[in-house]
């Protein structure tokens, strides 16, 4: 196996005169370097670049790339931060020159095909949401949250209402309270009840005429659908506030429930979790938002519009817009992939995606829950949160040890220690594309790990080029640059 610690760096393998290309002799006269670039503009020493053959370089990087865990090579059951398999056809279609090689400053009439796709995507996302208007601009789920809250703030400002608070469940993704704060609201935490869903009494107690928005994630981050959503929507609307859906978990309900029918006024999508989009890691991703008609005037401009003659245009004439949140039309490359995914699945296919995602998660839950208890719910939606609390208490085996040891079985770790309401959390989301054999193998690995020697687990993984890393040190004193000794 390729051993990282025994493999020299490119700099260390360098041999003077070894080259990747043999260039023809110059057919112009030599000139002293000082005549070309004056000394004052040059560093004292030329950079000591490594000198290697092409094959040395190819092998070096090919071997390094094989050290990565990747969805194309490994099962990747990350709850919440879902890594689902994205069909390759969507990559190919999104890269077609008619899409990938356009320039955003071209005139609208030379971009008709591209605008038609974005227009249809706006429509499709509105239909899936059961809402009325969509902005494709936000570049990530978190930016979608922020944009939607700015839209809600503009709506209340327009009505002369001073509402200062956004209510956020304690199980929510950390981006929810952060977005509320960034949008100028005070984030007020709503507790979960003993079943892992919104504590309605706490919600009632904190709801007031200062409430602007309640941000709910449904299904939530412990993988439960909150059946109180109708009651929550009624109470909230009676109070004049707006219901926001963090739509990151739409993979569980696609084509089965429309957020608009649950009373949702505004929401964001996470295309990387639901449709075929790469996860941006802060960008470039996409986080389109959908809103009910009374909020549509405030959406970021431009939207893509269609003239009565069927041609498409960028609609800048939106006097109440909150303005732009992203350059041009958003991250079109990611949006095209979402469009290809939606159109290639069709309505029935999208519904099957959700059904299989939920089936796979429940199958896995059933295989492991006697060893890794699931504190909330006996069934789940697309993901579930198991707990290693008993193993930690009885045998000193922590969620982190389990995650690290799974790497030895060629599985990526689940999300650990989130959400915070479950001690020693292992948040598992298998997604819809995994086979029964993969799920069985993963469950077998988890069960075996629970019986292993705790000392052995504390040092896992054992089969990787580097074993357990000091993650705190890596975060606090990272060494990001090679220095010659
Ligand atoms: C529930 C939930 N909300 C919000 C987000 C934020 O989305 P993004 O990472 O695209 O900013 C995520 C991330 O995947 C999420 O799982």
Overall, the morphology is globular
Element pattern in H and E: HHHHHHEHEHEHEHEEHEEEHEHHEEHHH
Ends: how far apart? 27 Å
Q: Count the E strands.
A: 12
* Biggest sheet character: 7 strands, mixed
The CATH superfamily of the largest domain is known as Type I PLP-dependent aspartate aminotransferase-like (Major domain)
Strand order of the largest sheet: 1-7-6-5-4-2-3
Helix percent reads 25-40%
CATH topology of the largest domain: Aspartate Aminotransferase, domain 2
Unreliable segments of 5+ consecutive residues = none
* CATH-defined architecture of the largest domain: 3-Layer(aba) Sandwich
Number of helices: 17
Overall domain count? 2
| Structure classification | alpha/beta
Ions and ligands: pyridoxal-5'-phosphate
The percentage of residues in β strands lies in: 5-15%
Spatial extent as radius of gyration: 26 Å
């Amino acid at each position: 196996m390729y051993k990282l610690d025994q493999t020299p760096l490119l700099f260390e393998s360098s041999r003077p005169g070894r080259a990747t290309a043999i260039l023809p002799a110059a057919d112009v006269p030599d000139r002293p370097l000082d005549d070309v670039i004056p000394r004052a503009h040059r560093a004292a020493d030329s950079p000591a670049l490594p000198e290697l053959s092409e094959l040395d370089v190819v092998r070096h990087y090919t071997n390094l790339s094989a050290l990565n865990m990747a969805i194309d090579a490994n099962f990747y059951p990350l709850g919440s931060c879902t890594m689902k398999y994205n069909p390759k056809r969507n990559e190919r279609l999104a890269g077609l020159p008619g899409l990938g090689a356009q320039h955003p400053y071209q005139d609208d009439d030379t971009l008709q095909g591209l605008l038609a796709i974005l227009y249809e995507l706006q429509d499709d996302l509105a239909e899936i949401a059961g809402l009325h208007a969509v902005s494709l601009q936000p570049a990530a789920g978190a930016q979608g949250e922020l944009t939607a809250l700015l839209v809600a703030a503009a709506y209340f400002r327009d009505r002369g209402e001073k509402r200062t608070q956004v209510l956020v469940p304690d199980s929510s993704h950390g981006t929810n309270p952060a977005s509320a704060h960034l949008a100028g609201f005070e984030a007020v935490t709503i507790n979960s009840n003993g079943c892992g869903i919104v504590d309605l009494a706490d919600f009632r107690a904190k709801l007031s005429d200062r409430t602007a928005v309640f941000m709910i994630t449904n299904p939530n981050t412990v993988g439960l659908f909150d059946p109180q959503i109708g009651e929550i929507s009624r109470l909230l609307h009676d109070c004049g506030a707006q219901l926001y859906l963090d739509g990151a978990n739409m993979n569980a309900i696609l084509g089965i429930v429309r957020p608009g029918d649950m009373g949702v006024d505004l929401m964001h999508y996470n295309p990387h979790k639901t449709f075929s989009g790469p996860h941006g890691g802060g960008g470039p991703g996409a986080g389109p938002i959908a809103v009910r008609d009374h909020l549509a005037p405030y959406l970021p401009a431009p939207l893509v519009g269609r003239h009565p003659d069927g041609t498409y245009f960028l609609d800048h004439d939106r006097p109440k817009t909150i303005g732009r949140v992203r350059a041009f039309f958003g991250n079109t490359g990611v949006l095209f992939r979402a469009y290809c995914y939606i159109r290639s699945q069709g309505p029935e296919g999208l519904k099957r995606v959700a059904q299989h995602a939920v089936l796979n998660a429940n199958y896995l839950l059933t295989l492991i829950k006697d060893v890794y208890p699931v504190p909330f719910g006996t069934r789940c939606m697309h993901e579930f949160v198991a707990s290693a609390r008993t193993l930690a208490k009885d045998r000193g085996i922590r969620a982190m040890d389990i995650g690290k040891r799974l790497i030895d079985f060629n599985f990526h770790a689940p999300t650990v220690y989130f959400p915070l309401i479950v001690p020693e959390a292992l948040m598992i989301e298998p997604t819809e594309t995994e086979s029964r054999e993969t799920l069985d193998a993963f469950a077998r690995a988890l069960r075996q790990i629970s019986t292993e020697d705790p000392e052995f687990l504390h040092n896992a993984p054992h089969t990787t080029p580097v074993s357990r890393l000091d993650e705190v040190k890596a975060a606090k004193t990272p060494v990001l640059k090679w220095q010659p000794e």
